[in-house]
Write a structure and sequence with these properties.
There is one protein chain. It is built from 1 helix and 9 strands; from the N terminus they run E-E-E-E-H-E-E-E-E-E. With about 140 residues, the chain is mainly beta. The strands form 2 sheets. Strands 1-5-6-9-3-2 form a 6-stranded antiparallel β-sheet. A 3-stranded antiparallel β-sheet has the order 4-8-7. Strand 5 and strand 6 form a beta hairpin. It starts with 6 loop residues before the first strand and ends in a 6-residue tail after the last strand.
Amino acid sequence: MALLNFIKSVTPIDEAGTALGAAVTDLPLPTSVSVEVRDVGGSSDRRAASYKSRNKRKGTIDIISIDWSPITFANAAKVLQAFGSKYLLIEYVSPKTGTWATKQFIVDTQRSLQLKDVDLELWEAAGFVLEQRIPDYD
């Protein structure tokens, strides 16, 4: 049985959502992936004195944390180039549906690269935090 990569493709896009280049489809398998679902349009943490929630949520977005550890110099270059644009169109496995979904994301955080072994050409890790983009909220 072949391993399934969580991300099928990454396409750089501009602010309007127009593709700026070809999709990258040959990313290495990540060593860890986590998905957080976050409210948008309001806070779900507000409570009145009566302890009733005052949720003004308009919807939810996915926050993806993805890491490769350790990662070769060549694979790190491939990953860094794929996630090099501010706005990205990413095809990934949606935890909500269990199927492939294609959504816009913003690179929120790029983790620092730390050298592990120069002779083996390895970085300790490479990783990103990707926040689903809702263009109306930018």
